[in-house]
Amino acid sequence: xxxxxxxxxxxxxxxxxxxxxxxxxxxxxxxxxxxxxxxxxxxxxxxxxxxxxxxxxxxxxxxxxxxxxxxxxxxxxxxxxxxxxxxxxxxxxxxxxxxxxxxxxxxxxxxxxxxxxxxxxxxxxxxxxxxxxxxxxxxxxxxxxxxxxxxxxxxxxxxxxxxxxxxxxxxxxxxxxxxxxxxxxxxxxxxxxxxxxxxxxxxxxxxxxxxxxxxxxxxxxxxxxxxxxxxxxxxxxxxxxxxxxxxxxxxxxxxxxxxxxxxxxxxxxxxxxxxxxxxxxxxxxxxxxxxxxxxxxxxxxxxxxxxxxxxxxxxxxxxxxxxxxxxxxxxxxxxxxxxxxxxxxxxxxxxxxxxxxxxxxxxxxxxxxxxxxxxxxxxxxxxxxxxxxxxxxxxxxxxxxxxxxxxxxxxxxxxxxxxxxxxxxxxxxxxxxxxxxxxxxxxxxxxxxxxxxxxxxxxxxxxxxxxxxxxxxxxxxxxxxxxxxxxxxxxxxxxxxxxxxxxxxxxxx
Length: 509
Hints:
This protein is an alpha/beta fold. It folds into two domains: 4-156 and 358-508, FAD/NAD(P)-binding domain (3-Layer(bba) Sandwich), CATH 3.50.50.60; 161-354, FAD/NAD(P)-binding domain, CATH 3.50.50.60. The chain is built from 14 helices and 25 strands. It has helices at residues 26-38, 56-59, 71-74, 89-102, 198-207, 232-239, 244-268, 270-282, 287-293, 312-318, 403-424, 454-459, 478-484, 502-508, and strands at residues 14-22, 44-47, 109-110, 113-121, 126-133, 138-149, 154-159, 173-175, 190-194, 213-218, 224-227, 306-309, 322-326, 329-332, 336-339, 344-346, 349-352, 356-358, 365-368, 371-372, 380-381, 385-386, 392-394, 428-431, 495-498. Strands 1, 2, 3, 4, 5, 6, 19, 20 and 23 form a nine-stranded mixed beta sheet that branches. It is globular and about 70 Å long. The protein starts with 13 loop residues before the first strand and ends with a helix. The relative contact order is 0.14.
């Protein structure tokens, strides 16, 4: 190897696998399933930093934690979902556990393994992974032919909390939902939840019964979709005793059809869609409250739209358990938060549901042939591969559709690619710009005019560049990709293959 960073681990045992999957969340468990089904002759291992599977659904323990996507599309295509469309973290973990048990995947997963470094060697056509295991940070060294990054896209260890003036003066607790602990007691306390997204909307009704009062403090409104947490088509099909596999597939297709129409209408007729969304909120709240606190200034789908089961947050406001304040923070005080309007919100506890920090590739230090990889200098192939980085795929899901939809699509793609490489006798593949791509305009990872949540805007400088052609960007369009990805020509000029390793060729000679 060309890098001395791995020198201390040389003497220890090195294991080898055909494929190394990073992360045992929804994407990593899906990757393990697809490898076992579609590449049964490949050895693979899944390394997970945490003590168990689940990723987000394991680390997030705040009250009410639930999906903001329906489980008929957030669930895997190969495993029927039989519960309510919006599911709790516990229900999702149980579902994932069944996938692991039913497919004997546990033997491939290793928990409490934190990857620190990954280096590609063109001489060996191998990735070398250096990790630490357990509380004693025991070093682990693994080589793999292919790296499948399924670690998600934000930092699990710590959420994002802005630095407001006077925070040190506040005499109460400041808590981020991402680091919630079981010993937090809100009973009889005045609580302020800062934020306006799905986490805030989940927390407020979940803690309203315990608090003396809870106030949702937001800088600006966001869109929500209130509705019953059930699917009428699924209910009907169950009354007809249809098999669950049929129900899952039919409901999944119907949800995707409706989502495609909604996304298209949000762009083509945003005023009409906006009026429809506000009408849903108006079923629970008076017009003046809807106008002041739940009427966003942006068009629908520039940020995620969370589904609110049974309008629970609006019901908490109607009952007087919760209130909403739309204002900007001037500073924290000893008693609470002073707003720019001059109003002071008294609080015993402030919960900062203000988002998370983006990380790129799990905060792993990457090198290719001894040179550090700066992913912001690479160009993405369809949002999953990167120029100059061989034998690696990154799973990044959709912002306007369920994450797992793309995890399943990329599961098929990676397995097809691995089987294609085997058939060609290729040991290496990487995306390259074609002659016609020279001089192509390079763009941000995602167009901020179409989608601009805070975490993405804060971390855009860390992400790869996109091109102005479909091959060189993450289109965020499931409905196009579901047809396009299976048809990708793996012998197209944007794929550069290399045969067996140089060492192997010298041995053969």
